[in-house]
């Protein structure tokens, strides 16, 4: 097989890159080790920055997003028995939209297939070869046959555990990472949200987040120990803990319902530099992971491939190499801005040490400053809805 850009991974980054290249007349093939059903239903992030919404709509895949996405113009902070709304749209002129990552993936897959795009699901044993030459090759196995995809460039959009980053020779990449001493227990519940906007709660028992996926489905999170056993959390215990951490405002209560899914996810920060080696360009979770507190993961991936789409177009249309050469440095400016914001939100809202009264007082002081200072609230809002340029 022959194409111009070989893309490994059919998550939001790989699919969006393929779509953007198609709009510029550039051919691509997307290889994905999982089935279409799997990638269209795996639960991930659900908050889109204004820039991500604009990108999806501008590229022609935002029709369902406009119709079904939940636009939020603020968030609520709960701490020390107080509740404060941060009016993000009023402070920045921009907002966020709640729309599940799996829905973004469904829209992009539908758009690529409708346009005759090539997405090869269940392509196993991917191996990258010749990345330091003009003719990289992606080796894979599909339907019991060994195949090769020859291309001009390879885009590694296959996540933290993918093969792309591992194809870079040892000593080329530098890794920066931090593991946090807690995890998130996340649940999806068949319960109508009791709020119109997300609630971030700092509580003596630990952090909690009240989010949603639709007018009928709530998405909720609890801070737990990193080695917590999900079997130790029956539904009633989860609801009891959510009530304790969220029902701190008189007269307000959350809506309960059957829990459809539950899982525990560790919290970590991870960045690899550079994001390019020779003809391999890395994007999304393959090169950076953030704690979900700042809702930046999918948004960073989409920002990466927006840069890559322009860079490949400049190379094919005009023979320019400057955007490809500058891709890593340009993308990393946004990545590190998002890393700082995610770390700050995480540190401000979670119990870092459960019995540290000094840390608790600092967190309360910081939260109250955000709630009462327009300048501080504007800074949080600018980062949360997504900085236009970094």
SS class: alpha+beta
Question: What is the fold-level CATH name, i.e. the topology of the largest domain?
Answer: FAD/NAD(P)-binding domain
CATH A-level architecture of the largest domain: 3-Layer(bba) Sandwich
Biggest sheet overview: 8 strands, mixed
Protein name: 4-hydroxybenzoate 3-monooxygenase
InterPro entries: FAD-bd (IPR002938), FAD/NAD-bd_sf (IPR036188), HB_mOase (IPR012733), RIFMO-like (IPR050641)
Organism: Micromonospora orduensis
EC number: 1.14.13.2
Q: What is this structure's SSE topology?
A:
Layout: E1 5-8, H1 12-23, E2 28-31, H2 36-41, E3 47-48, H3 50-58, H4 63-68, E4 70-72, E5 75-79, E6 82-86, H5 88-92, E7 96-98, H6 101-114, E8 118-120, E9 124-129, E10 137-142, E11 145-150, E12 153-156, E13 174-189, E14 199-202, E15 208-212, E16 218-224, H7 235-246, E17 259-273, E18 276-277, E19 280-282, E20 288-289, H8 297-318, H9 322-349, H10 357-372, H11 374-385
Parallel strand pairs: 1-2, 1-12, 2-8, 5-14, 12-19
Antiparallel strand pairs: 3-7, 4-7, 5-6, 9-10, 10-11, 13-16, 13-17, 14-15, 15-16, 17-20, 18-19
Helix pairs in contact: 1-6, 1-8, 8-9, 10-11
Describe, in plain words, how this protein is organized in 3D.
With 390 residues, this protein is of the alpha+beta class. The chain has 2 domains: 5-71 and 96-176 and 268-345, 3-Layer(bba) Sandwich (FAD/NAD(P)-binding domain); 180-266 and 352-385, D-Amino Acid Oxidase, subunit A, domain 2 (D-Amino Acid Oxidase, Chain A, domain 2), CATH 3.30.9.10. The protein has helices at 12-23, 36-41, 50-58, 63-68, 88-92, 101-114, 235-246, 297-318, 322-349, 357-372, 374-385, and strands spanning 5-8, 28-31, 47-48, 70-72, 75-79, 82-86, 96-98, 118-120, 124-129, 137-142, 145-150, 153-156, 174-189, 199-202, 208-212, 218-224, 259-273, 276-277, 280-282, 288-289. A hairpin with a 5-residue loop joins strand 14 (199-202) and strand 15. The chain is globular. The model has no long low-confidence stretch (mean pLDDT 96).
């Amino acid at each position: 097989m022959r194409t111009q850009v070989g893309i490994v991974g059919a998550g939001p980054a790989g699919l969006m890159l393929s779509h953007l290249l198609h709009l510029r007349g550039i051919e691509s093939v997307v290889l994905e080790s999982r089935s279409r059903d799997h990638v269209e239903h795996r639960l991930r992030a659900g908050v889109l920055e204004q820039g991500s919404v604009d990108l999806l709509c501008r590229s022609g895949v935002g029709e369902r997003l406009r119709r079904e996405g939940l636009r939020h113009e603020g968030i609520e902070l709960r701490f020390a028995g107080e509740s404060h709304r941060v009016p993000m749209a009023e402070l920045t002129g921009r907002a966020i939209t709640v729309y599940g990552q799996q829905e973004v993936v469904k829209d992009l897959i539908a758009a690529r297939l409708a346009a005759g795009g090539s997405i090869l699901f269940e392509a196993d044993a991917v191996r990258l070869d010749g990345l330091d030459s003009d003719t990289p090759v992606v080796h894979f196995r599909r339907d019991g046959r060994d195949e090769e995809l020859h291309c001009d460039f390879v885009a590694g959009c296959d996540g933290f555990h993918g093969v792309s980053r591992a194809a870079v020779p040892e000593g080329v990449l530098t890794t920066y990472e931090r593991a946090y001493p807690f995890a998130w227990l996340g649940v999806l519940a068949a319960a109508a949200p009791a709020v119109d906007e997300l609630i971030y709660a700092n509580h003596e028992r630990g952090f909690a987040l009240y989010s949603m996926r639709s007018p009928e489905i709530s998405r909720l999170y609890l801070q737990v120990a990193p080695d917590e056993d999900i079997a130790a959390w029956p539904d009633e215990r989860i609801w009891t803990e959510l009530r304790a951490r969220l029902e701190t405002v008189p007269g307000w209560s959350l809506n309960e319902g059957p829990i459809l899914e539950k899982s525990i996810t560790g919290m970590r920060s991870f960045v690899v530099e550079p994001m390019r080696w020779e003809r391999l360009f890395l994007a999304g979770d393959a090169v950076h992971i953030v704690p979900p507190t700042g809702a930046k993961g999918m948004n960073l991936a989409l920002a990466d491939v927006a840069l890559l789409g322009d860079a490949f177009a400049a190379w094919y249309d005009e023979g320019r190499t400057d955007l490809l050469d500058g891709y890593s440095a340009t993308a990393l400016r946004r990545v590190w801005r998002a890393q700082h914001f995610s770390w700050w939100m995480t540190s401000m809202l979670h119990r870092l040490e459960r019995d540290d009264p000094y840390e608790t007082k600092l967190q309360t002081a910081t939260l109250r400053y955000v709630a009462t200072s327009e300048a501080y609230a504007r800074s949080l809002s600018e980062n949360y809805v997504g900085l236009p340029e970094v």
